[in-house]
Design a protein that fits this description.
Length: about 260
């Protein structure tokens, strides 16, 4: 539907936002039509930032015609990683979408079972609500989109599963979609951050997107990996799970080596 990233990620994902009590936002211009919003996060109890990319003449767009895309970054990246790249920045500016880029730190977009102060799933809800309120973005799911890469690919799929019915489509690029777990082939695994997920492998199943894939029913799903990516087997497992559940999806394999 609309271009997203360098790999030509095309997403039509729409998310409805839960209502979180608004806090005062500070806004500054980063680039023309790209702003940084800062607010006090009630869930994380610290000041947090997010970037929003605005469509051309966005104030003249009727609220019912506004479309919003959320992109979750990978591990070791941040809310500016995409807009700091000149090519990707221009693609986002040309998309005609309101694009929200949260700062997910190294939090895997989940409420950690071992670090009670790290409520990154709740924080993500908070970010979306704050920005929706500030920019008058409608709450209908057809008008929101979500995608992500690597850790953000994991995060966007699991967030969609945790909020069933809020997305018309979900898109993951090189996401860790059969994770956390052990027992994958050599070169096709990723060390589980036990400081985030804990060390109980039985508990890990609660956080593995494979086990909640049914909650994606009704969404349009796009899963992208690469032929030599470390997450390729995870993505194959996840696509097999979607097939077993008879969930329609599109899969793409990039013929290149992709690193986290």
């Amino acid at each position: 539907m609309n271009r997203l990233m360098r790999a030509g990620l095309v997403v039509g994902v729409w998310l409805s936002v839960s209502v979180v009590k608004a806090a005062e936002l500070e806004t500054e211009e980063l680039f023309p039509r790209i702003e940084v919003v800062t607010f006090e996060s009630a869930s994380l109890k610290q000041r947090k930032r997010a970037v929003i990319v605005l469509p051309e003449n966005w104030r003249s767009i009727k609220p019912e015609e506004r479309r919003t895309l959320v992109i979750l970054h990978g591990r070791g990246r941040h809310e500016r990683s995409l807009v700091d790249d000149k090519i990707i920045r221009q693609q986002l500016l040309d998309s005609g979408l309101f694009v929200i880029l949260p700062d997910g730190d190294d939090g895997w977009y989940l409420n950690s079972p071992v670090r009670q102060q790290d409520s990154y799933e709740t924080y993500l809800e908070e970010v979306l609500s704050q920005v929706a309120n500030a920019y008058d973005l409608p709450e209908k799911k057809e008008q929101w989109a979500i995608a992500g890469w690597s850790m953000g690919g994991y995060g966007c799929v699991r967030f969609a599963e945790r909020h069933p019915g809020r997305f018309a489509a979900v898109s993951s690029m090189i996401g860790l979609l059969d994770f956390p777990r052990n027992g994958l082939p050599a070169g096709q695994s990723y060390k589980v951050p036990v400081e985030r997920f804990g060390d109980d492998e039985v508990e890990w199943k609660k956080f593995n997107p494979q086990n909640q894939a049914e909650e994606l029913r009704g969404a349009s799903l796009l899963i992208i990996t690469a032929d030599q990516a470390f997450d390729r087997t995870m993505n194959e497992h996840f696509r097999d799970r979607l097939t077993a559940l008879e969930l329609p999806h599109t899969k793409r394999v990039l013929l290149r080596k992709t690193r986290n």
